[in-house]
Write a structure and sequence with these properties.
5-stranded mixed sheet; metal-binding; 8 helices; 34% helix; binds calcium ion; binds adenosine-2'-monophosphate; 14 strands; Inositol monophosphatase family protein; 7-stranded mixed sheet; alpha+beta; magnesium; D-Maltodextrin-Binding Protein, domain 2; metal ion binding; Inositol_monophosphatase-like; Fructose-1,6-Bisphosphatase, Chain A, domain 1
């Protein structure tokens, strides 16, 4: 199946999932904690992940699937066709703000990102990246307007916990920038990069589903993405990640202290 056809199918599924998610605000959402008091999961995250797994299984039974809420396989390799799904990215925002969360899907073949989707559910803003074909926003070709700027002219986004604890001395980088923004959803932060609101997003522990879609966008937009150590991102484990416009990336990458 052509990538464009896959992309059209995904768009249909995401639309259906988003309608379901919005309807859940009329019901009582069941919230549980995972690794930490602030690490949340709800019945809605789980239901949406089951929904995507079933769609993928029905249409592409040969493909590997993995998602945050572990409703699929535990991935051991990126060989062949692989889907990487975050049913709700920004669960704390979903629970507490009913806003500022995203659905994210990445589709890879032999480790190469071919399709990325990030959907800002409450703003009905749909971003799709197809390898070699650029980005579409709500069905229209999307032309990034941001011009590459120096760090002192740039707003940057950094994970909140990392800022609070000054992990890798990131506060020095914030001081050197135009200012800090924290959105609380990797997907919404990557959308912020595409819209040119921010010039960099940095997080100390992104899981494969937090960054798989974003890496396809990065490739199509000419953004730089790597681990903070400058190693390539490994989609079989958690990574400390920077995704940024080239000048901002170059200004920051050598300055993550005490890694
Ligand atoms: P999630 O909401 O899908 O879990 C919050 O800063 C961002 O980091 C969100 O995109 C969130 O994704 C992600 N994240 C990754 N690991 C997390 C964790 N252990 N606790 C909270 N957020 C996490
Ligand atoms: Ca989570
Ligand atoms: Ca996530
Ligand atoms: Ca999630």
């Amino acid at each position: 199946m052509k990538l464009e056809e896959r992309a059209a199918l995904v768009k249909e599924w995401v639309g259906e999932a988003a309608t379901f998610i919005r309807q859940q605000f009329e019901t009582e959402i069941q919230v549980q904690t995972k690794s930490h008091r602030t690490d949340l999961v709800t019945n809605v995250d789980q239901a949406v992940e089951v929904f995507f797994r079933k769609k993928i299984e029905a249409h592409f039974p040969q493909d590997q699937y993995f998602g945050e809420e572990k409703m699929g396989d535990n991935p051991t390799s990126l060989n062949g066709p692989v889907w990487i799904v975050d049913p709700i990215d920004g669960t704390a925002n979903f629970v507490l703000q009913q806003n500022h969360f995203a659905i994210m899907l990445g589709y890879y073949e032999d480790g190469e990102g071919l399709l990325g989707v990030i959907y800002d559910v409450m703003h009905d803003d749909y971003f799709e990246a197809i390898k070699g074909k650029g980005i579409r926003r709500n069905g229209e070709a999307f032309i990034p307007r941001y011009t590459d700027k120096q760090l002192d002219q740039s707003l940057i986004a950094i994970n909140g916990g990392m800022v609070m604890r000054n992990v890798y001395d990131v506060q020095d980088l914030i001081v050197a920038s135009m200012g800090l923004r924290i959105y609380g959803s990797a997907g919404i932060e990557i959308v912020g990069l595409m819209k040119g609101e921010i010039a960099a997003y940095i997080s100390p522990r992104l899981q494969p589903w937090d960054i798989a879609a974003g890496m396809v966008f990065a490739e199509e937009m000419g953004l730089k993405v790597s681990q903070l150590s400058q190693e390539p991102v490994d989609l079989l484990q958690a990574n400390a990640v920077i995704i940024a416009y080239p000048s901002t990336y170059d200004a920051m990458i050598g300055n993550f202290k005490n890694q």
